[in-house]
Amino acid sequence: MSKNCNTSAVGSDELIKLGIEGITATILECKSCPLHENATNKVIIRGSERPKVLFIGEAPGKNEDENGIPFCGRAGKVLDELIDHMALEENEYAMINTVKCRPPNNRKPTQNELRTCRPFLVAQIALLDPDVIILLGNTAEQAFCVSSLKWGEAVITQEGKHLMKLYHPAALLYRRTLMRQQKEMIDKNKKLWQKI
Ligand code: URA
Q: Does ligand 1 have an atom closer than 6 angstroms to the CB of 113?
């Protein structure tokens, strides 16, 4: 992740020392931005704690807020279809979001919300330590503090991870052409997770 990106006062290094359980507890207690005020549940992670592939979404929606589980609604069904297409086993992937609380009316997280929640994102990535990071849409790209990634073209990060941006699953709902393109991008890159 870029070193030039602004971060909030809470340090990701401190969070990393707490481990996965400590981060979860800290997120559950977090009141650092107004998003917590309307959150029914904090939405932290779905999937393996040692994933090959880590998907980073935008923000929890209504279903996720109600259940406390990332991608458990309509966009999640699309993501599940993509995961099947990638032939990933249950223990090979995980999903997290740029922010852990649902923004009102499903609006995009603000720059300030992204910045405030970023140490959690950084610490989750460090502890989950995936081989491949898939940013789902432009907000995830922003939160990751990279820019000008090309859709479906993988790069290597300073930490030696494969990083790729794909369309957000919600953008694929009812858009079969886009879904076909997304699957083609996945096919082009499948050696990244299949060779591991
Ligand atoms: N969209 C997201 O970006 N994340 C979720 O968890 C659900 C929908």
A: no
